Amino acid sequence: MKNVRFITLESVVATFAVVVLHTNGVFWNFSTEHYWFTANIIECLFYFSVPIFFMITGATLLDYDDRYSTKVFFIKRLKKTFIPFIAWSLIGVVYLIVMNRIGLNEITFKYLFYGITKTTIVNLYWFFPPLFCVYLSIPLIAAVKKEKKQSIYLYTSIICFICNICIPFVINVFKIDYKFSISVSVGSGYLLYVLIGYLLSYNDLELKQRIIVYFLGLFGLLVHIMGTYKLSIEAGTIIRTFKGYNNVPCIMYSIGIFVLIKIIAEKISSEHFWKIINFLGKYTFSVYLMQWFIMDFVTHKFSEINIYSMWYRLGTPILIYLICVIITIVLRKIPILKKIVP
Q: CA 38 from chain center: how many Å?
């Protein structure tokens, strides 16, 4: 990667996008009212957040063995993600007790075990189990010889996209009666994004290639928006045919956004801009960890807030981001607590 700064910009944009997805949670309350029409558009526009996080993982970690050993790799992942995940899940338990949502008598080992592993305590933490599985797979993927990584990753990405994503998508959309299952496990789930993230980070696309990527990305976005709207309106409930992170529309759109952000980063030379981005980039993980607490507290303590309004859905993420930054700055000054906000 010639310009590593774009990774920070990708992270900041994706973090803001994931907060918007959550403040726009009214999308999941299907209705024929106007709010759901706008909620569907916002949901689809910011849907790239999770895929980009996994693409960043591929861009930054598939060459980890150039910098440190596999043992150090896991120690770093343990400190940076696993410990904070456990800590904030337990903080979630304390929060629920303080808010009188659960009683002390309900806190058993079984409750804690399933609450953490199934992320039912803080449901936004569903992201962590797939992430940990990706971490466990990375040493195997990274073991490919450096001179062969580009070709092997490209081959794997193409095969997995066709077999794991495209074929099931076509079968689902056109209701084809097809029982035979084709799946390539090496790039299943979110691992495909990890491979794509590496390839896009280490290769500069030509203008013609970028135009194709942008066109396919826009096509994926429009299919996601209009397909979800049409099918859901007809059924009277949310239909997920065109939704899902491991689905054709999302993958095409996410790749387009990732490439666009990378190009934008290369074009911006303002040091003031990069000072702001680098500052915000230090707190992206903290924002992900804390956002649920702030949203939950606000919506329960201030019931008069209209969560269906555009002001709340698009304006609140900015406020949440800033509050999380302030809390993190404070916590990082406390020796013990700074470990839970790396």
A: 21
Angle at 160 between CA 8 and CA 185, to 5 degrees: 100
Torsion angle of C-alpha atoms 75, 2, 274, 339, degrees rounded to 10: 0
At residue 341, the 3 state secondary structure works out as coil
Smallest CA-to-CA distance from 53 within 124, 145, 150, 139 is with 124
- Using an 8 Å Cβ cutoff, are 123 and 73 in contact? no
CA atoms of 256 and 222, how far apart (whole Å)? 13
- The number of CA neighbours under 13 Å toward the Cβ of 21 is 16
8 Å CB contact between 34 and 309: no
Tokens representing 25?
């949670």
Question: Each residue's pLDDT tens digit in the chain (342 positions)?
Answer: 656 899 999 999 999 999 999 999 999 999 999 999 999 999 999 999 999 999 999 999 999 999 999 999 999 999 999 999 999 999 999 999 999 999 999 999 999 999 999 999 999 999 999 999 999 999 999 999 999 999 999 999 999 999 999 999 999 999 888 777 788 989 889 999 999 999 999 999 999 999 999 999 999 999 999 999 999 999 999 999 999 999 999 999 999 999 999 999 999 999 999 999 999 999 999 999 999 999 999 998 888 999 999 999 999 999 999 999 999 999 999 998 999 999
- Which position has the token pair 């029982």? 179
Q: Mind giving me the DSSP string for 124-176? A: GGGGHHHHHHHHHHHHHHHTS-HHHHHHHHHHHHHHHIIIIIIHHHHHHHTT-
Cβ-proximal residues to 176 (8 Å cutoff; 6+ apart), any chain = 170
* Helix spans in the chain (H): 5-23, 34-45, 49-61, 70-77, 83-98, 109-117, 128-142, 146-160, 167-173, 191-202, 207-235, 248-267, 271-281, 284-301, 310, 316-331
Q: Provide the 10 A C-beta neighbour count for residue 287.
A: 24
Q: For residue 172, count CB atoms less than 10 angstroms from its CB and return exposed for 0-12, middle for 13-18, buried for 19 or more.
A: middle
Cα–Cα distance for residue pair 299/313, rounded to 1 Å: 12
